[in-house]
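Re: the 360-residue chain
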Amino acid sequence: MNSNDIDQFLAERELPGVVGLAINQTDILYEGAFGVANTSSGLPLQIDAPHAIMSMTKPITSFATMMLVESGELSLNTPVYEYLPEYQSISVLKNVDLTKRIYSTEPPSRPITISDLLTNTSGLGYNFSNDVLFTFEEPGDSVSFPLLHQPGQKWTYSLATKLLGDIIAAIKGQSLEAALKSLILNPLGMDNTSYNIRGNQVFTHAKDEDNWQPLDHFPYSPRGDGGLISTAHDYGRFLQCLLNDGQPLLTSKSFKAMISNQIGELFVVEQPAANPQLTHPFPMGAGIDKFGYGFQIAMSEGLLRSPGSYSWCGLFNTFFWGDPGKKIGGILLMQTLPFYSPVCLDTLEGFEKRLYQSAL
């Protein structure tokens, strides 16, 4: 692969730093790190610098969930309340008046299931991307606040994977981090992935009027929906597992279920920027793409990625995708806010374009 064009493109981005990695089923096709880990210190960014991957934790948790389904320790149809009893009596939002801050509720038509959590159709949400939860100052997993819609009725981005992490820990009888290590991280050799802040971790930056300013490291906790700190090479090991149809950790049949449409006639829906300091509206592909068990599934013809490619991302502008048609995957790590900013999306698009031009 001729990497010069990719190198030049990433080096010229108006970002504090960016790491790019491209792989196929067995090899690294491209790797590069540009910029700094901290604009205050000027420390050069290294290819294996730890990044807070935030919601790129979710696919790992979802994969671990499917491992438990495959082993018979869990069922996709299991009601969530069997492991988290507080969700047995949760209600559903019926009508809401944001101006008056009042709402009415109705009973759920059925219990939330493990499948609902994996597909983001549970009715849970996030307050930074939902005006109702933001208005009522609810985090999105409070059982005192109703579900945003009936289970299975709509796709809503949520912290449902946090509940999956809690369930994994309950089933395995150990902490979530210990469970993820035994199920995925250790077998794949992801030795630099954990929930612990490290001294050489890349700082997240936000821009003032003119310059990128480093922020204090966010406090991370072992949650299924976010908090892992990882490196490009470590996440690349996970992505290579995905490109090999989940093997050696999952059968091809179970993995293909993960990257197949599991939401029927529903679509991935654009999530609003309830808190613009944290995020722009997202994701790309809204109204077109489907969702599997933990992955957004590309449905569009004519894109660089093959239809059926799977992907997800993280709040600090970390991105990955796997292309099962062309057997190639990419990882792009940035550490900036807000999420889905134009410069980060342009960087992702340009990286992907040059990667496919060089590799295929």
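The domain at 4-359 is CATH 3.40.710.10 (Beta-lactamase).
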